[in-house]
Amino acid sequence: MRVKAKCVLLLVLLTVLGITLLYNYHAAVDEEVPGELTRRERLLLQQVTRDPNRVIHYNYPITNEASISREPIDISVEMPAWQEVDKHIVVVTGFSQKKAYVGLGLIASVQAHMPVKKIIVYNLGVHPKIVKQMEQMCNVEVRRFNFTNYPKHAAKIDNKAWKIFALREVLMEYGGFFYASPQVRFRAPINFIIPYILKHEGIIAITNPQNLSVEVTHPDLYGILRTSPARFTKAHPNAFIASEHMWLALNGSVPETKIWTPLLDCASNWRCIGPHGSTWGDIEPNVNGTKAHTHRYDMSALSLLLYRNYYDSWHSDTSMNAILKRIADVIYHLDLHDYLWAHYCNPPKKEIDCSIERKLC
């Protein structure tokens, strides 16, 4: 009996000792020590590096010398070599403060897979501190869209008219662009898609399989583009809308006539780009006798023009679609912390240990 009582007492003592040690450990971990990471910061860092003691090594060149070309290009007349075409294509995006850190993650993914690719970011209301941060990143140019040069309705960012005008400016300046929303994450260089550009006459886009075009396009837009929802549905019964997350364009006289001229005309007319009653959110059409209708603005107009000129061929190329899926993904969880991987050239960001020099990460 005495032996059994001693064993029980020993077990109780060991349990109390274990609880005390565990409490002291967490207290020490949670206590903030100057110059060291707190437990919360350590967990945050682990979401990115998986190892707080890991020294970050970039396995790609860190350079501020973007490989670009401003020589005139018209692929409808002559298609240059892929190396030359690649120099004409710049990555373009734009975001407000709401998606600023998501956008920085996009920049990091471009730098990782295309370290000499120029990145143009349109500032739609980003905090000055983050703007300064972006301006220090390698090959990043931050621009303010000049709304005064365009119709007044372009100042309403939600109707996306500004995006059409901005992309047109970039197309005229460099001869090509790859538009990527802040949610895009590149997994490979975009030069893999270059062999498909000529076949698709300088416009490459993907569909959004979650929305049929007729479901997210205001009926008034069909009339302006000389068709109707009924005729469009009959010609394209299962026509998905073009995705707002990514599309590529290269300068050419054929896409200029078929796509850009009518697209710019549409963007210049608020009744076309955003007819009365248009809303981005999913709603019941014509509720309470109004003209309310779900509308995707720039992508609704672009989709109708693509179907009008190319029928289903613009999105039915399975080989091209497979390459696009290999090049980039779209993220829908916006709480990622991959913005920490973006690197800087003004001044340069050196290889550092984030667990020690956390202010530099």
Quick overview:
The chain is an alpha/beta fold and 361 residues long.
CATH architecture of the largest domain: Alpha-Beta Complex
Q: Under the CATH scheme, which class of the largest domain?
A: Alpha Beta
**What is the CATH topology of the largest domain?**
Spore Coat Polysaccharide Biosynthesis Protein SpsA, Chain A
End-to-end gap: 62 Å
**Structure class:** alpha/beta
Biggest β-sheet: count, sense, barrel?
6 strands, mixed
Which of globular, elongated, flat, extended, rod-shaped describes the shape? globular
**Per DSSP, what share of the residues sits in E-state strands of 2 or more residues?**
5-15%
Mean pLDDT: 84
Q: List how many beta strands DSSP finds.
A: 10
Rg, Å, rounded: 26 Å
Counting DSSP H or I runs of 4 or more residues, the number of helices is 12
List low-pLDDT spans: 28-35, 44-52, 349-353
Proportion in helices: 25-40%
Strand order of the largest sheet: 3-2-1-4-7-6
Structural domains: how many:
2
Strand/helix succession: HHHEHEHEHEEEHHEHHEEHHE
Pfam families: DUF1647 (PF07801)
Keywords: Signal
Signal peptide: 1-22
How would you describe this protein?
The strands form three sheets. The chain has a six-stranded mixed β-sheet, with helices on both faces. Strands 5-10 form a two-stranded antiparallel ribbon. The chain is of the alpha/beta class and 361 residues long. Helix 4 links the parallel strand 1 and strand 2 (119-123). The protein has helices spanning 2-30, 39-49, 82-88, 100-113, 128-135, 161-174, 219-224, 229-235, 253-267, 270-273, 298-310, 318-327; strands spanning 89-95, 119-123, 140-143, 176-180, 184-186, 203-212, 240-250, 278-279, 293-294, 328-330. The protein contains twelve helices and ten strands. Helix 9 (253-267) runs antiparallel to helix 11. The chain has two domains: 2-55 and 354-360; 82-341, Spore Coat Polysaccharide Biosynthesis Protein SpsA, Chain A. Mean pLDDT is 84; it is low at 28-35, 44-52 and 349-353. Residues 1-22 form the signal peptide. InterPro entries: DUF1647 (IPR012444). It holds the Pfam family DUF1647. Keywords: Signal.
